[in-house]
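#structure-requests
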Amino acid sequence: MQKKIIRIFIVLTITFIIVVFFVGLSKDKTYDTKDLVGQKVSEFQIDHFIDNKKISEKDFKRNGFTLINFWASWCAPCKDEHPYLLKLRDEKNLKIIGVNFKDKKSNAQKFLNDLGNPYTEVATDKLGKHSVMFGIYGIPESLLVDKDLIVIKKFVGPILKNDYRLIKNIIEKK
């Protein structure tokens, strides 16, 4: 009787493991943030880079558009996009929030001092936890948000010439 119970237990355990394995294989493992466009930015608070204050979604409502740019000093493509961010800094209807991602403060400050600071505000995400909330899984990435906190466009990779033109067209139309 005891052997029969042990056999049943073993068969049930193996069956359970096989079912869990195949269910796991059938799930889509692709991390996709395409549904982020058109969604409203949820409430958040992230530490300011220099000042002892928080940056929140409320700061985005003060202007027509906000470009949230996730960057780091150790990121080579971030240097490629930097000249275009500097050009966008002069747009009247656009505020640029830079989120320094998993970086040393001294390195980030040197990066901005050497290349120029295109950001209206700079936040810091030392552990990368806040960036995940925005669907960020690599840098550089940027989100263009309107005054109603709706994500208009997500840019994966550096903002280059075509992206720069697209952002200008979007913010000039409204």
